[in-house]
Write a structure and sequence with these properties.
By secondary structure, the protein is mostly beta strands. 22% of the residues are buried. It is 10% helix and 36% strand. The strands form 2 sheets. The protein has a 4-stranded antiparallel sheet with strand order 2-1-8-3, covered by helices on one side. Strands 4-7-6-5 form a 4-stranded antiparallel sheet, with no helix packed on it. The chain starts with 6 loop residues before the first strand and ends in a 21-residue tail after the last helix. The longest helix is centred in the N-terminal third of the chain and has 7 residues.
């Protein structure tokens, strides 16, 4: 079966930055819905017409991936607003921000704690890959028709580098 809209593809990948440094490797195939919200549009476009066994390589500019880095998404907040045990690298959902901070910070973003100071915390609402050109080497392991449930949800359950709260120091972004 060839990849088209409303099908599910099982992929592995190697993701590199513009200089060729490896950022992430997905060794075990993961399923993604094509035609839903799982993959970036440029990735879906590049996969169209390929079948199981295909290898697809593409370069993504920031505009085609996670956007440009936005300085307006960096916030300096009083340390006293946050609980003890906060560490650099932790992620905080905008909806879980302390009320005193949430008033001026978008609640629909996921914030990374980038710096901790005795009196302040620096929170970054940019995606960790924002502003980066990316090189992606994809391998298609399987292609199948999407179920009605997957199409209705708009996902096979996994998003391409959908960042979720994770433990500090986690080695991967997926």
């Amino acid at each position: 079966m060839d990849i088209n809209s409303q099908c599910v593809v099982a992929l592995t990948w190697t993701l590199k930055d513009g200089l060729g440094d490896v950022l992430d490797v997905l060794d075990s195939p993961v399923e993604f819905l094509v035609g839903g919200s799982d993959l970036l549009p440029k990735i879906e476009e590049a996969l169209q017409g390929h079948a199981a066994g295909a290898r697809v390589q593409l370069n993504l500019e920031p505009a085609d991936a996670f956007g440009d880095f936005d300085e307006a998404r960096i916030f300096l907040e009083p340390r006293s607003l946050f609980p003890q045990g906060l560490e650099e690298g932790m992620l905080i959902e905008g909806s879980a921000l302390p009320a005193q901070a949430a008033g001026h910070m978008p609640r629909d973003l996921l914030y990374t704690v980038t710096d901790l100071y005795p009196e302040h915390v620096v929170l970054d609402g940019n995606h960790p890959l924002a502003g980066m050109g990316l090189r992606l080497d994809l391998r298609v392991h399987a292609v199948r028709e999407a179920t009605e449930e997957e199409v209705g949800r708009g996902t096979a359950g996994t998003g391409f580098f959908r960042v979720q709260p994770m433990a500090p120091g986690s080695p991967t972004l997926h």
